Amino acid sequence: MSIRFKALTKSIWVYHLSTGSCNNCDIEILDLLTPRFDVERFGITLVGSVRHADAILVTGALNLKTIPRVKRVYEQAAKPCLVIAIGACACGQGIFKNGPNTPNPVDSILPVDIYIPGCPPKPEAMIAGIVKLIEHVRRKKKGL
Amino acid sequence: MLKYVFNFLIFPGFLFTAILGLLASWVDRKLTALIQWRVGPPWYQPFIDILKLSLKEIILPNPSSKIIFFLAPFVGLSAVMLVSTFIWGANINPYQTGFVGDLIVAMYLLTLPSLAIILGASASGNPLASLGLSREIKLLLSYELPFIMALSVSIIKSGGLLKLSEIVLYQKTNGPFLFSPSGIIAMLISVFCMQAKLGLVPFDMGEAETEIMGGIYIEYSGMLLGIFKLTKAMMMVIVPLFLITVLWGGFNIWKYIVLLILMILIKNTNPRVRIDQAMRFFWRKMGLLGLAAILLAIMKY
């Protein structure tokens, strides 16, 4: 395995991208940084700018207004950059499946690396998902 | 010649200070985590962060002026490398190193990292970066005068010495300047100025992650961001070391640890102030205190 991905999996800086969610997943994401779960133990920190990010956490059902902006944010990220879809809406559109304003699921716009379902997913589920993501990256060994 | 290159790049200069600085930034993160009742990252975390950043893609944004944007981090890093060589040299081998006036040179070189950040942010062409850089310029203007006042206390008390190694030797024979009324006031002022120079919390309005999303660093990615982080980590060693050299009579690991812990405690127990509050604080309160310290020093207290 290349040192590039080894270093990446040891220090994942995440950028939080809400594409019109109900704020429930977002609050659960912030829970991960609180003393109870403390993901900084594994080198995961929340960053403010997408240029610094190694992973983008996408929450919410993509609507027509946010599709071009999500594309633009992903293009601005420095590669390699992972995409994590969090919550039922981001994974498979959830209850907005037949909505007129939400025609596209997230994985038709962005190359999603891992799906973490739940409405909202528990912080434990998110940690389990990130562990699986790290294993996936280490197994894949190729450029993302 | 080879000795100077070795001094500059490896032992007291770049490599040594960088490793020490990254360890200091780990202490910062770990203590912050302990204060917040968390566990915190392992000791190698800052090293992995720098390694990861240096292997990532570098993006030069389209509206930026690319040459200045690319070169600005290197300006800050080279200034810190040079100043660390001076200051460690005066502490390790005070009889042979240094030249007359290196105190003033060190003072100016310590300003260069802030100027490099300002240069890079203004070249990046981002509105949030320009907001952060205007705050950074105001902060630089406000803390620089009290800092120079505090340092001039030590020049006055040593009878006009301008050489770091001579100041260290003077304090070794006559006792550190810290243990006198003017020295204590100067140390108080310079601790606050150190906090502003390093961009730590009460005075981190230029960066302000939660407010303007990284501000001055917003467009930087990959190795360039890593160099800024490394510069900041090295400043975390060099600025306390400079204060110890000038006011507290030479380097000692315990003195450094005391200053580092004081810095982290101030960072963790204060909210971010607004830029106008910071300017008022530095110009009125710290400026008057600095004047008082200089007067006390002239009257030999």
Plain-language structure description:
The complex is a heterodimer of chains A (144) and B (301). Chain A has 144 residues and is α/β, with parallel strands linked by helices. Chain A has a single domain (3-140), classed as 3-Layer(aba) Sandwich (Rossmann fold). Chain A is built from five helices and five strands, in the order αβαββαβαβα. In chain A, strands 2-1-3-4-5 form a five-stranded parallel sheet. The model of chain A has no long low-confidence stretch (mean pLDDT 86). Chain B is mainly alpha-helical. Chain B has one domain (2-298). Chain B contains twelve helices and no strands. Chain B is globular. Chain B starts with a helix and ends with a helix. The mean pLDDT of chain B is 88.
- Our estimate of the beta-strand percent of chain A is 5-15%
- The count of strands of chain A amounts to 5
H/E topology pattern of chain B? HHHHHHHHHHHH
Average pLDDT taken over every residue of chain A: 86
What is the global morphology of chain A? Answer: globular
Secondary-structure blueprint:
The complex is a heterodimer of chains A (144) and B (301).
Chain A: H1 3-10, E1 13-18, H2 24-31, E2 45-46, E3 55-59, H3 67-76, E4 82-86, H4 88-92, E5 114-116, H5 123-140
Parallel strand pairs in A: 1-2, 1-3, 3-4, 4-5
Chain B: H1 2-9, H2 14-35, H3 45-54, H4 66-92, H5 102-124, H6 127-157, H7 164-174, H8 181-198, H9 209-212, H10 222-247, H11 253-268, H12 275-298
Helix pairs in contact in B: 2-10, 2-11, 3-10, 4-5, 4-7, 4-10, 5-6, 6-8, 6-12, 8-10, 8-12, 10-11
Task: Note the main attributes of this structure.
heterodimer; A: 144 residues; alpha/beta; Rossmann fold; 5 helices; 5 strands; 15% strand; globular; B: 301 residues; mainly alpha; 12 helices; 0% strand
Quick summary:
The complex is a heterodimer of chains A (144) and B (301). Chain A is of the alpha/beta class and 144 residues long.
